[in-house]
Write the structure tokens for this entry.
Amino acid sequence: MDASGSRSTFVVVNGEAAGTRIVIPHGKTTVGSDEGSRLRLPVSGVSRRHALLTSVDGRTILDDQNSRNGTWVNGHTITSPTELTDGDEVQFGQVRLRFVEGTYDGGSAPPPEGGGWAEPRTAPAAARKKGLGSALLFAAAINVVGLIGNSLTAFLTELTPTWTWFVTPVMGLAVALGGETLDYLKDKGKPTPKPPPRRYRPSSLGQPARPARPVRPGQPNTHATTYPSPPVRAAPRSRPVIATVLVTLLLLGGGGWLLAAGASYAVGYFSGNEEGTQRLARQVVTETQGVTVTVLGIQSTAHFTRVEIHVRNGTGSSMSLPLFHNAVLTGPDGTTFDADSFRSSWQPEIPPGGQRKGTVNFESQLPESGGTVSLSFVTVFMQGFDGPRSITVPDIPLMPVVTPL
């Protein structure tokens, strides 16, 4: 029975590979989905090490290896080593196989050499065209969703530049959800495999079908106990809908907004470019020996006091107004604060007849009640003798901070 050309075989009964033959090798053969299995079945419901086949002396014995979904013969689950007979129907997971004992069906092509899962037959041309068309349609739809999302992001960013940190992640989330929805609908349209019907093989003499014969050492074969039809477990989705919904709710509930707000806060603090409340009541101009300093604005932010100034050098010499230990802001109560040169936007060098505009940051919080402050440059570094040695802009009026009710 085990001679070459007359070995027992399995014939695939269901699925795209229906009609494919699998030769059962001589000796012990591991059946499973693992790469190391001698008879590998990469099918849903098949465990890594599902069952053990033993083909010796013309007999083929099947033994389940504590698989997750069980091993079934003629609609019965087996709990002990079971000898297969010609025509028995065996099920591993979602694949059903018919056992052919030492012969081939007439007119069929010879089986492949060795054990293993053979390649499924080629699908009809019409089915291939339909599958390609659907894939192209869904790919185009996903790209359209991405294009719309990018367009809306660009439009809303230009419309509300202050909200750039929030518009971009929200639109990215919307695009991801749209693509996930289309992908889910595509998978949902695929047919779900149905569980195999409970079948019994009629004998050649018209007698009732017989169940598989369990092999018990030292005892004759007995009939196997009848069990319900095998449960068929659907293959798990790679991206479960429930998990997607939970992640989406988490992001919409504040996760994405918190991340964007945190990034905006960090960048504003380290760069000093924070938005704040305008406190300057009116612009103040001071001119000293040809150098004019204009205070354009004073903002109170979360961490700084930002003073925007404009300096015009009306002398014939180059001058420099450095900030480090040189620019001083004096509050209404006489408290002085040094400028933070690393978080300011200021170029100290001003050529003759030139002008400079920038922002000087002070790590201080001015009182909310208002009053007047003064801005001073302790030393003006001139390359000639026709300019001032220091500059002070006094009596800069502040508006009180109005707290909303």
Q: What stands out?
A: The mean pLDDT is 74.
